[in-house]
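Student: Please help interpret what follows.
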Amino acid sequence: MKNRVTFHPDETTASFVSRLAFANGVPTIADLLLDAELTMAGFLKGDPKVFSKISDLSGVAVCDLMRQACVPTGLSRYQLLGHDLGKQHLLRGESRVCPACLRSDTSMQLTPGAMTKTYGRTLWLISSARVCPVHRLALVPPPEDSSKHEFVNAWLPWMFEVVEGELDREVTAGGLYEDHVVRRLNGDHPEGWAKSFPIGALGAICEMLGVSVIHGKAATLGQLSQEELAAATSAGFTILNNGPHEVLAYFERLRMSPSKPQDRPQACYGKLYDWQKRGAGSGHEFESLRDLLRQHILENWPLGAGDQALDYVLTERRLHSIRTASTTHDLHPKRLRRILVDAGIIEDSELADFEIIFDAVDAREILEQASGSVAFTGAQKRLGLTRGQMETLIKAEILIPGEGGDLARPRFTESTIVSWLKHFGSFPESRKWETLTSIADAVRKNGASTDRIVNLILEGRAKKVFRLRGQNVFSAILIDKYEVSELLRGDENSEDPV
């Protein structure tokens, strides 16, 4: 083309082509491409044929044009200056600027020639970048909507306001994340832990951390201004860049903040937890931070088997608090505290029951002794069950073992045994009438499992349930054989396909 413009190393390719078109009297990038029998769609998709033609027109190497463009690399992923970025981390097509940068580009002039010198920086494409790290001004969009990807068209009508400083919005507490990104985009390797994160994911992490630190764990990004978000992002960057120990220290401050005894990690860590559990923070590029929070939870929270630490489900309990141990083992908290102090498991403390954490494995034997936990054979004998009946009810999660023992030799709390005996004893006494039968007999005669018949009783569907006089164990339970057979047949019929 007759007029050439300089391609700056920190400029986006879209900005460069927009200026090239303007310098040669062509209104837009789309018009420039149309004249060359090419399409805007091809340009946005990174079509080599389109970039080769732009290279011919501009004198800039294809590799440089491709490198400074947002080139799609896969599903919602783009490459920019060698960095992989998700679509959610880019403001692709939008045009934000630092007004002071444009004033510097034009030397405060408003001539067409000066306009060809203004250019869009690659930093301005990053969605979490909100402040110019050089001038400490907020990055601002045009006052009115404009055509996407057309840098010159977007800002030409507003250059008077830019030069007069009417769009300036000073941000005094911001710019640390943006300064880091500029260095990374330039190929530098800044000091600190932040460099181990992709620049897009890094911005999102700094936002979430900073908002939590400054505005509270329940605060959301949507309720804050761009200036507030810029300051929060810098605060989050400071914590993250100092290393994992600083992030863990903040997690610990959240854990130790005033809370309710029944609060779980989700309530304690607020939006940070939700974001990493089911929001954008659950993506693979946030794995390092997620690993950190998950391990912190596992090392500090008295979670039981089946509880979750983010995406990890515990297979067994690792930690207890006095509160969880007293509930699980049916022990009074004050008595349990004395037992644990005497055993050297915990130190004497004024902390609340839910705040005192100890190793569940180290305390298992003491807790079993204190609670009088019952072994499998002892529970079997006291409940009046056969071994097969016990195993069936455990597998069906009707009879729940307590902590201690293992899968082959489960143990049961005294309270579990007592509650079942009370339940058995709640049925009215009766002689063994002709229509009544034991659960074991009903299982054999109907070809049904023990748990199916027990569930008929627990769900209240079997109405005629009695027990032998003077007995309150499982083997003494009597049910009406006709009623049970009819209920079982009805269940089978309801399961038949139509």
Summary: The radius of gyration is 35 Å.
